[in-house]
Amino acid sequence: MTGRVRLPSLNALRVFHAVARSRSLVKAAEELRVSPQAVGQQIRQLEEALGVTLVEREGRSIRLTDAAIALSYHVRAGFDEFEEGIRRITTTSDRPRIAFNVSPYFGTRYLMPRLADFRKAVPDAEIVLTTLIDLVDLERDEIDLAVQWGYGDRKDVQSHLLLRDPKVICCHPDLARAIRGPADLLTVGLLQPSRSTRLWPDILLYLGLTVPKPDRQLTFDDSATMRRAAQQGLGVGLVSRIDAEEDLAAGRLVAPLGLDALVGMPEAAIPGFYVISTRPRLRVKPVAALHRWLLEQDWSRP
């Protein structure tokens, strides 16, 4: 059985945490409101205490060693635990409070029809439900759980897929007359999503095309706006399949390459809705209960 390790000073670890985040002695010093020399001294003392090199100087900048990078993950997790514990016990409410954020599209299309069941999942907690299109920073925004659109590749959170969001290439019926095959997509305006720079390139590659430099003069913050732009003939858009089926049936849009043109794309290239949180937050029972409820739902059924 391994004996307990003698921990270095908490202040030295706090300084190292700031240096590892910023990759800079100067920026860490500004954050901690001390001099860069004081930061350097704390790092040297930590290196002496641990017997390993953590920071190597490269001119006027620094480089974290492999040992420092490995240590930074554990130190960050430790400070996250501290912050979460303090936040929980200093809340003034008698009821546990869950800050839950969802993307507007997911909230409207999938969560709202389940709102009654959603509330029953944590009946004794106060749920503050917000909607943000922008990428959520759980720490900055003080969010416990969030459902975000993307590819599940964020390294700063725990991420679990709830639902894939396959797209359909759609446009106004008049514009569809100019599209007889995949190559014709490169001759018409492609409506660009501001939330992802890889969505169109992944699709064009799947269709066997050489990906041109994207024209991002006109981008759309959310899927609803892109959908309306496609309906108005402003260009070719990427519409969520469930919405595309509605618009195709109503004649508002056409899928010039067919409804199933993108069926078979690699899963890694298909975006989706992911529930994100952190390990410290998921140790709080009401947050864990709501997280579990989200994972248990069949979101493929709107």
From TrEMBL:
InterPro entries in the cross-refs: LysR-type_TF_proteobact-type, LysR_HTH_N, LysR_subst-bd, WH-like_DNA-bd_sf, WH_DNA-bd_sf
HTH lysR-type domain sequence ranges: 8-65
UniProt keyword S-adenosyl-L-methionine, yes or no: no
Tagged with keyword Nucleotidyltransferase: no
A GO biological-process term: DNA-templated transcription
Record-level Gene Ontology MF annotations: DNA-binding transcription factor activity; sequence-specific DNA binding
PANTHER family, alphabetized: HTH-TYPE TRANSCRIPTIONAL REGULATOR, HTH-TYPE TRANSCRIPTIONAL REGULATOR TRPI
Keywords attached to this entry: DNA-binding, Transcription, Transcription regulation
Highest rank taxon of the organism: Bacteria
Protein name stated in the entry: Transcriptional regulator
Family: Belongs to the LysR transcriptional regulatory family.
